Amino acid sequence: MAEPHVASTEAPSGEHAEATAFGLAAPGIVALAMVVVIVILLWKKVPGAIGKSLDGKIAAIREQLDEAAALRREAQAIRAEYEVKAQASAEDARHLLERAHHEAEQILAKAKEDAETLVERRGRIAEDKIAAEERAALAELRATTADAAARAAARLIAERGDGKADKALVDQAIAGLGRR
């Protein structure tokens, strides 16, 4: 049978050769590149530009903060103004309520007075009607009584009287009329 073939690689033991450029190893090249970049940045005045940019942003933020503070003061002033207006409105509402209560009391007093006057007037009217009815009843009673008395007198005269007595009564009545 055939034997399987196994490939193996062996790492060389010992030192390896590093790549160099201009006699600098990889860390040296990175350090040199960083120095070159920093020198270019300084030469082009990038830190100053970054500083100016940051100063501009700081100034803008400071301006926004000042504006926010001014807006806050303005809002507080408006709030204080509206609180004063609210208190004035509450005071006005209280005065209106007091005036309404006072007017209602006056209206009630006037209505009570008017009702009492009306009751008194109607009472007088009722009393006057009752008195008129009493007078009418008395007049009717007197008329009825006088009529009954006249009929009774006529009947008595007719029963008891004769012509001479009638003549004497008529003469007496006529004489009495002249004295009145």
Query: Which class of secondary structure composition applies to the elements?
Result: mainly alpha
Principal-axes geometry comes out as: rod-shaped
Q: Tell me the count of domains.
A: 1
- How widely separated are the two ends? 192 Å
Compute the gyration radius: what is it? 68 Å
* SSE run: HHH
Largest sheet: none
Q: Stretches where pLDDT falls below 50 for ≥5 residues?
A: none
Overall mean confidence score, pLDDT = 85
Count of β-strands: 0
Feature tags:
single chain, rod-shaped, 180 residues, mainly alpha
Question: What does this protein structure show overall?
Answer:
It is a single chain. With 180 residues, the chain is an all-alpha fold. The protein has one domain (26-160). Helices cover 83% and strands 0% of the residues. The chain is built from 3 helices and no strands. It is rod-shaped, with a radius of gyration of 68 Å. The relative contact order is 0.02.
In a nutshell, what does this entry contain?
The protein has 180 residues and is mostly helical. It is 83% helix and 0% strand.
